[in-house]
Amino acid sequence: MTDDRLGEPETDREGSTERVADLAISLGHRRALLAGMLSRMKRDGSWRVSGHFHFRGYVENECRLSYRLALTWIRVHDLLEAQGVSLEQLADLPWEKVTLASRVITAKNREDLLDDLKVLTIRALRSKYDPSCLEVATPEPAPSIGTPEPTISGLARMGWRVAKPHEEEFYVTEEVWEQCAYGVEHGRSVLVVGESGCGKTEVCYRIAQAMGRPLVAMNCGAMSEPRSALIGVTHLDGRRGTRFMPSRFARAFQCRMTCLLLDELSRAGPEAFNILVPALDAQGYLALDESEDASVVRRASGVAFLATANVGLEYTGTERLDRAILDRFPILIEMAFPPPVHERRVLLHRCVGLSEHDAERLVAIADRQRTLAHEGEFVGSVSTRALIAAGEQVGRGVAFDIAFKYCVLSRFSTEGGEASEQVKLLQIAQGIGETRADGWEKMLEEHFGSSKRPARPGTPPFFLK
């Protein structure tokens, strides 16, 4: 297919990357056209011919654009494209109006909106299609228990839905992405639980970025003193007297339209939970000390809480999340690992130089191991994060078995001798791909002196179950 406006075939990838770079430098006012080209290149990976390892490097060095700004342009373009707005229509519209249109366009109002974009002012457009924009300067009252939720038909006009990431870049289901977007837009706290390395933290960062919200992250596992980390500390100054220094969390708590990420919430202790309960619920405050007449810090309008938690026996140092803290999260999401076909695409996208064959092997090993983990043969599962680490090494020339050993295998226990988790995982790997590779045999010998361990009588090897 040929794009007549660009005057070049889509298959000319090297010429396309040069064309985008030229547009970014010399035709800054044609952001819509540039957004369409960047979106296409991000999807098909044609930016790689420029020699950069990451799309961010291409955008910042070749296009001389802010990476965050480029992602915003791409998001706006993709939202409009999903509603059938052509590239030619995008290129002819003022960008401020394009941005507004991406928030409010639907299949029903598309034609009327496109006509109005040509004749109405920004203020008139907001008044007609998105009345909430006119009230953004007025602080919203703290949410109260029993406030009725707007209907789905009303929500479709409020601009809270945003395009999710391309599946080869980061896989998340439509439902999970929509729930996260709803929570951020409407101030409903979101808790994402799941196994380590499945993408819980990343989905929080991505939804904040997609919605144009600043995100402040708190590592709950590193809070040795929850009160000073969440509220602040008091300093005694000989000249100025006693001064209170609010924490980074408390400062962000008072900033409008901010996302606060409580990462690894299950690693916080009871003291942290007691501080967070009134901050998360309808009261929306942080008490500066424990006295009855203590000063309080109020939650700013539009502040949204996102939290992640690892829940399970395999996670040491974690606290059981009691009902009081769980009830402060109206949206509870259980996140799973990507399906094998999508996980393979993520590996190929993120691991430069990784072959499809090696990506298939890594995903097949992980998929089999996770099945056995659900059956009780393993305490934990192979994470997508570990697969990406191994894939990056393999893509850069490290032998598959060596990368697998240090990025995946080493995360499992050696206790139990021939029945240890590491031996079971090696048997899975040996049964997939090159079944008698020397690397696997050497690693098996390291565990029990022979690469041909006989199975227990009447029991097939784990990878044949």
Summarize the structure.
45% of the residues lie in helices and 10% in strands. The protein is built from 21 helices and 11 strands.
Explain the overall architecture:
The chain has 465 residues and is of the alpha/beta class. The protein has helices spanning 13-26, 31-44, 55-61, 67-82, 87-91, 95-104, 110-119, 122-129, 152-155, 174-186, 200-210, 226-230, 248-253, 270-280, 323-326, 340-350, 356-374, 384-395, 400-407, 421-430, 438-448; strands at residues 2-3, 8-9, 190-193, 215-219, 232-237, 241-246, 259-263, 285-287, 296-298, 304-309, 331-334. The strands form four sheets. Strands 4-7-10-3-11 form a five-stranded parallel beta sheet. It is globular and about 75 Å long. The relative contact order is 0.07.
Highlighted features:
single chain; 465 residues; alpha/beta; five-stranded parallel sheet; two-stranded antiparallel ribbon; 11 strands; 45% helix; disordered N terminus; disordered C terminus
Structural topology:
Layout: E1 2-3, E2 8-9, H1 13-26, H2 31-44, H3 55-61, H4 67-82, H5 87-91, H6 95-104, H7 110-119, H8 122-129, H9 152-155, H10 174-186, E3 190-193, H11 200-210, E4 215-219, H12 226-230, E5 232-237, E6 241-246, H13 248-253, E7 259-263, H14 270-280, E8 285-287, E9 296-298, E10 304-309, H15 323-326, E11 331-334, H16 340-350, H17 356-374, H18 384-395, H19 400-407, H20 421-430, H21 438-448
Parallel strand pairs: 3-10, 3-11, 4-7, 7-10
Antiparallel strand pairs: 1-2, 5-6, 8-9
Helix pairs in contact: 1-2, 2-4, 4-6, 6-8, 10-11, 16-17, 16-18, 17-18, 18-19, 20-21
